[in-house]
Structures are given as C-alpha cells and as structure tokens.
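Need residues for this backbone.
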C-alpha cells in the first residue's frame, strides 16, 4: 500500500523513530492505518550496519513506503557507506540522529552531543549527499545542557544547511546530557515551540518539522500553520488508530479507512509469514495492544494478547480469539 502522493508531501506528518518500538512489524501496522504519513526505522548505528547483520537491520516490506532510515554515527566515511546501503535497500530518505541523549550514544560520540560539533555534522551530511540521490535529513534538539540559546541552535542549523541539508526535524526541547535519563529528557526539559517557529521564519528556504509533546491531529494542523511538517511519537505508538483520520485531515485523501477489525484481518497473513521466518508472535502483538484503546473490550483485548501470545504453540488463533472480545 505505497503512498500515491509526492514524497515531499509525505513529510507533512511522520512517525518518529523510536528505539525498540518502530521495528518493521510496527511500521507494517501503521501503514495499514495511514497510506501517506512518513515512517522511520529505529536508529541503526553505522557500526551495526558495517560490521553486523546488515540484512536484518535494513529489512522491511515494500508496503511500508514512504520510509526513512535513521542512522546513528559521526564518522563521515562510515555515514556515507551506510547511506549508500540504505539507498540500495530502497529507503526513501536517510536521517541522521543528532538528538538522542543516552549515555550509550554519547559514549559513541553521536546523538545529541553532536550539536556541539556542527562542523562534523556538516561533514557527515556532505559525505552522505555525495553518494546518494535521496534526501539526507537531520533530527536534532534545540540545544544541549547550558548551550541552549536560540543563537546556538540557529548557528547549528545554518552550518549544517550550508552542507546541503534541506530538512531538519527539531525536537522542541533541549537535551541534558548529564543528570537526566533518556526518558526524563523526553519530558523534563520544557517544550519551546516558538523557537522552532522562529527557525522556520529565519530559514524560510528550509523544510522544518516540529516534534515533541504532540498528541492529536488537531495539534498537528495547528503546527502546520507555522512549520512545514509534524512528527508524532509515543502518542501514535500507544494509540495507533489515532492515524486513521490523518489521510483525510492532513493529506486530503478521503478514501475509506480500514476498521480496527479489518486491520487485524489484514495483518494475519503478514504475521503468519513472519512467524515462519522465526519471529515470535509476542514480538509482533506487543505493537497491537493499543489498537482498540478507548473502546469497550480494549482491556480484554490487551489481557488476552499479553497472557497468550508468549505461550508455546501460540499462533494467529490468539488474535482471532482476541477479536471476539472487542466490539
């Protein structure tokens, strides 16, 4: 179910790369709900692609398009090598993570700490752009630690844009590299939406997406009056059917949306195929727990999947039985 709209329009709404969450099974589900929103992989490090099981890290279904690959790394040559792999694997975009604040990422000298090295980020962007014909984008924060002035983030954007980056996804918070966990970094630093709006005003030639604390499509529409695109994250993961109205509200596509029951029915052949490849059922059903959120029987649905998907012999009958528990 590939998107039929131009790729740049798909940027109007995207689902954030979320470690341990936005794997290929999650993305397959989300694509059944929205035909058009841009999806992202989990962050993949350059080391994992170059020295690890690249086929596993790059694996995806063609129905997931439009789809972007997010890379974590700082060495320009390694980034270029991995960007080429991503393009050859069929991804629509290569995104560089300059926003993750975890200690593990910092120890690898990439993620949010790279905001302090805009010249190195620019080198990485230039190296990737030199070897691929698909967009190279950057996802970042508004600052790090006490380097959180507007001038700091504007200088970062300016220098990286000079290297050819035309799309920035700005998480509207700074990151504390010391003292806060990654989870706390998603909530504790205050949201600064006006700063993202100001970046768009000061760099009108760039495509600016806003990210952070966005929970509804109405909020998405409001942000789109000030910026070019919106990235949603945890709100979509915990309530994936939130995207059911996205194609009509954001992309002006009024085709009929699959019901929740129809989505599960459409997932069954895919799930059966994945299980023949060795994927445990519980690894897929964990992404489905929130599909019926807010409806009668939603708790029964979650409980049945949670209690049965991990059992020996569990198969698609677990989902078929769970469907009988919700209206």
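Answer:
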């Amino acid at each position: 179910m590939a998107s039929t709209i131009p790729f740049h329009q798909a940027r109007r709404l995207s689902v954030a790369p979320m470690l341990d969450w936005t794997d290929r099974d999650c993305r397959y589900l989300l694509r059944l709900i929205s035909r058009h929103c841009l999806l992202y992989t989990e962050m993949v490090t350059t080391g994992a692609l170059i020295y690890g099981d690249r086929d596993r890290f790059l694996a995806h279904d063609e129905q997931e398009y439009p789809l972007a690959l997010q890379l974590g790394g700082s060495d320009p040559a390694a980034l270029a090598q991995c960007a080429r792999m991503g393009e050859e694997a069929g991804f629509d975009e290569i995104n560089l993570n300059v926003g993750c604040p975890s200690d593990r990422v910092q120890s690898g000298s990439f993620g949010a700490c790279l905001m302090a090295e805009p010249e190195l980020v620019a080198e990485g962007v230039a190296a990737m752009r030199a070897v691929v014909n698909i967009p190279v984008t950057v996802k970042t924060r508004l600052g790090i630690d006490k380097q959180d002035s507007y001038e700091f983030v504007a200088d970062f954007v300016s220098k990286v844009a000079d290297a050819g980056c035309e799309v920035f996804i700005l998480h509207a918070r700074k990151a504390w590299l010391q003292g806060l966990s990654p989870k706390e970094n998603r909530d504790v630093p205050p949201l600064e939406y006006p700063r993202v709006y100001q970046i768009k005003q000061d760099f009108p030639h760039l495509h600016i997406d806003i990210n952070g604390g966005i929970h509804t499509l109405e909020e998405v529409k409001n942000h789109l009056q000030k910026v070019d695109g919106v990235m949603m994250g945890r709100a979509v993961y915990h309530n994936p059917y939130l995207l059911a109205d996205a194609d009509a509200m954001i992309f002006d596509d009024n085709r009929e949306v699959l019901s929740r029951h129809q989505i599960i029915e459409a997932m069954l052949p895919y799930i059966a195929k994945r299980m023949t490849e060795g994927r445990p059922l519980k690894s897929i059903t964990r992404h489905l727990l929130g599909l019926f959120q807010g409806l009668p029987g939603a708790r029964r649905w979650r409980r049945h999947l949670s209690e049965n998907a991990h059992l020996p012999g569990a198969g698609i009958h677990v989902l078929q039985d769970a469907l009988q528990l919700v209206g």
